[in-house]
Amino acid sequence: MAEIKNLLVVGLGLIGGSVALAARKAGFAERYLGVDLAQDERQGALTLGVVDEVSEHLEDLAPQADLIVLAVPVLAMEPVLQALKPHLKTDAILTDVGSCKAVIAEAAERVFGRQPANFILGHPIAGAERSGVAAAQVDLFRNRKVILTPTATNSPQALDQVRRLWKLAGAEVLEMDIRQHDEVLARTSHLPHLLAFSLVDTLARRDERLDIFRYAAGGFRDFTRVAASDPVMWRDIFLANREATLGALDEFLEGVQRLRDAVEHRDAEELVSTFTHAKSARDYFTALLNETGYQTMQNQKINFVTQPGGGPVQGRIRVPGDKSISHRSIMLGALAEGITQVKGFLEGEDALATLQTFRDLGVLIEGPHNGEVTIHGVGINGLKAPQDPLYLGNSGTSMRLLSGLLAAQSFDCELTGDASLSKRPMGRVADPLRLMGAEIETAEGGRPPLKIKGGQPLKGIHYDLPMASAQVKSCLLLAGLWAEGETSVTEPAPTRDHTERMLQGFGYPVKKDGATASLVGGGQLTACDIDIPADISSATFFMVAAAITPGSDLTLEHVGINPTRDGVINILRLMGADLELSNQREVGGEPVADIRVRYQPLKGIDIPEDQVPLAIDEFPALFIAAACAEGITRLRGAEELRVKESDRIQVMADGLQALGVDCTVLDDGIDIQGKGEAEAVFTTARLQCHHDHRIAMSFAVAGLRASGSITIEDCATVNTSFPGFAELASSVGMKLESERPAGRA
Ligand code: S3P
């Protein structure tokens, strides 16, 4: 069912024609009418099926029109309104697509005495440098922004109708006031057009034969694309938005003058500082333009394929930055007063999901660039409401920590994730947050998405964690920053304490009393510099690789060895591995060391239960070590492994069995029958990693002791924690390739 009978487009150019095409495709009106002074545009509009009926004269078609879109140059609006006035149906709705709004509002006042209630001013931020109805495109507005500038006297029904037209055309509709619109557009659209026109004109004047353009490649073409736009339309825009464009132009001229001086005086520092600032602003802008902001590689299909004969594993390497600390650096940096500089940031998708989330919450973050990130903190109460649901990809840490932080904000928000994250339990954070006074809705079974209602005052609680989880502990401590009184959390076993350490680094007092961590809400965080160590969880794949491959001697540099994370070192040593720690030091409140691993035969052990939370992410790789050890390795008290990115007990057991290793699965652990010094421990197989990065990397390591090739399917999630894993693995002697399966995206 069409929404209206007759839609009239006045001005059958690129924009007017595209509005008609988009509205027609969506079935918005029963009939489409067009008025244009130019015979060829009218003819073109009919031939191309843009409209059903055309005329040169407004009076022929205006009386039938229910909604009229004015798509004429800005300075032609007034005469067009004048001509329309006597022929308008009483309840006809008017809208326009002009690039300047104040001048059109003033024209309407002059013509009608005041801006009519049914005249909704609008501006689609879309276009192309080509003009005329022949250039019209049905999708021109899809995923583009349309700014409406309604006034208090506008009719809500008319506003609604115009909004619907644009939404049906696929656009995102925003509202602004008229003055703000003109100021913003002067800077983001009008000034760049003026510069492009000016640059091309200046160059062309110097070279009448236009020879120079033969040599003008990428940069020139990109910069001047818009200089091919319609001159009359742009003449009108500059005449109409004169004041705001002059302001923008003056600022720009000052900037150019500064650069001119810098070039003249060989001021390298000024040049590099201007360019660096511009580059990070542009990178930030690119991230904003990115639709989901943060985009995963997960729809790119990548398989890992190992070949036999890899190793020994040798060299000195540094694995990427710690994932847990990277998440927290963004969160606390964003909430701090001042600028936080981060080094060693993990440029993996999980940490990038957190980074993008804070951009969506209004925080300016520069980078990451070679692991460096600059966070312009907004202070404890400075976050802004996000426009859309916050998409956290595969990252459980982001979702659980953010749920605490966001439960305390004044605005509503929704947290979503990919297929793996959408299956993970969130009741463990939602339940205690509710006890603090938060309002959180989860999907069935306490799964994502989480819908958090803002404006709920939180009160501090004491909470005894039912499971050893740093994520739940951190979630509650973060919520506690805004809660009234003290929030304290007691854990059944020690879990990673990066949140507590980092809060203290930001000057926020955290009390530790045995198994209890507590803080009092209402304080401030002060920006600080953070040097993130290499991630011990990522280093683990290489520790195990060297520990199982005869002849290996590998050093991992600058690895974080926080005592709440060092279970893997203790377990491997108990298994007989030769691990040597050197260069131990403290960096930004976290202990680090270089770890040298030399091959030595391993033996099966009963893994001490107190080591389980300290090595919780390392078990998939440790299972590979267990398969290469002499005798049985038994793991108990590890039921948490079943709710990680995959059910790590079952998925690893399935893979090990497919590779010819005997194992017995228990609810909270596994027994693995190691093959010790056998020539080949693993057979050839094709395995699934169930979108779990650590499973994928663990089986890749198994390739070092396999008799044939191992293929691990769909390994793109490795990018969540360890971008560049396959390349680094090859560089130390592993035979591992990434393959794009044929016929898949
Ligand atoms: C993490 C805590 C652990 C760990 C995860 C990261 C963190 O999860 O498995 O990879 O950064 O706090 P749990 O708290 O669920 O054990």
Our Rg estimate from Cα atoms comes to 31 Å
Architecture per CATH nomenclature, i.e. the level-2 architecture of the largest domain = Alpha-beta prism
Give the overall shape: elongated
Structural class per helix/strand content? alpha/beta
Q: Work out the helix count.
A: 23
Helicity range of the residues?
25-40%
How much of the residues is beta strand, in percent? 15-25%
CATH top level class name of the largest domain: Alpha Beta
Bound molecule types: shikimate-3-phosphate
CATH superfamily of the largest domain: Enolpyruvate transferase domain
Distance between the termini: 38 Å
Mean pLDDT: 93
Arrangement of strands in the largest sheet: 3-2-1-4-5-6
User: Low-confidence runs (pLDDT<50, min 5 residues)?
Assistant: none
Would you report the number of β strands? Answer: 32
- Characterize the main sheet: 6 strands, parallel
How many individual domains? 4
- CATH-derived topology of the largest domain: UDP-n-acetylglucosamine1-carboxyvinyl-transferase, Chain
Structural features, described:
- With 745 residues, this protein is α/β, with parallel strands linked by helices.
- It has 23 helices and 32 strands.
- It has four domains: 6-176, NAD(P)-binding Rossmann-like Domain (Rossmann fold, 3-Layer(aba) Sandwich); 183-266, 6-phosphogluconate dehydrogenase C-terminal fold, CATH 1.10.3660.10; 301-318 and 533-739, Enolpyruvate transferase domain (UDP-n-acetylglucosamine1-carboxyvinyl-transferase, Chain); 323-530, Alpha-beta prism (UDP-n-acetylglucosamine1-carboxyvinyl-transferase, Chain), CATH 3.65.10.
- The chain is elongated and about 95 Å long.
- Helix 4 packs parallel to helix 5 and helix 18 packs parallel to helix 20.
- The model has no long low-confidence stretch (mean pLDDT 93).
- Helix 16 (470-480) links the parallel strand 19 and strand 20.
- The chain has a six-stranded parallel β-sheet.
- The structure holds shikimate-3-phosphate.
- The site of shikimate-3-phosphate has 10 residues, from helix 16.
